[in-house]
Amino acid sequence: MAKSFPLVAIFVFAMGVNVCYAVDYIVGDSAGWNPGVDFNAWAASKTFTVRDSLVFRYTKGAHNVVQVNQISDYANCYSGQSVPLTSGNDVIPLRSSGPKYFISSVKDDCAKGQKLTINVK
């Protein structure tokens, strides 16, 4: 019986360890990356961590995704020199912690609220 204790202890320890899995978050859930969605309300119910990914789904040509680097660019809907993603199924891996900002730079999408800010832990 004493010989089985180490095996039982290892099993109990292993069961108590939290396993972290990367999550692919579809931005806007079933509504996708489209106008009329409150993306910040959507994000408020999520916990984003390094290794997760954001998936932006939209009709190709109707919108795009631009990651901007500063809150001022986000607030002013300024995409600067950033190259937009345009596939309609854009996947952005979250490789570092901290705030991340995304906008659609097509026409007045961003001004109408098609933008997202998240904090990656």
From TrEMBL:
GO terms for cellular component: plasma membrane. Transmembrane segments: none annotated. Residues 23-121 form the Phytocyanin domain. The keyword Membrane does not apply. Keywords: Copper, Electron transport, Glycoprotein, Metal-binding, Signal, Transport. InterPro entries: Cupredoxin, Phytocyanin-like, Phytocyanin_dom. One of its GO terms (molecular function) is metal ion binding. Residues 1-22 form the signal peptide. This is Phytocyanin domain-containing protein. It comes from Cannabis sativa. The lineage of its organism: Eukaryota, Viridiplantae, Streptophyta, Embryophyta, Tracheophyta.
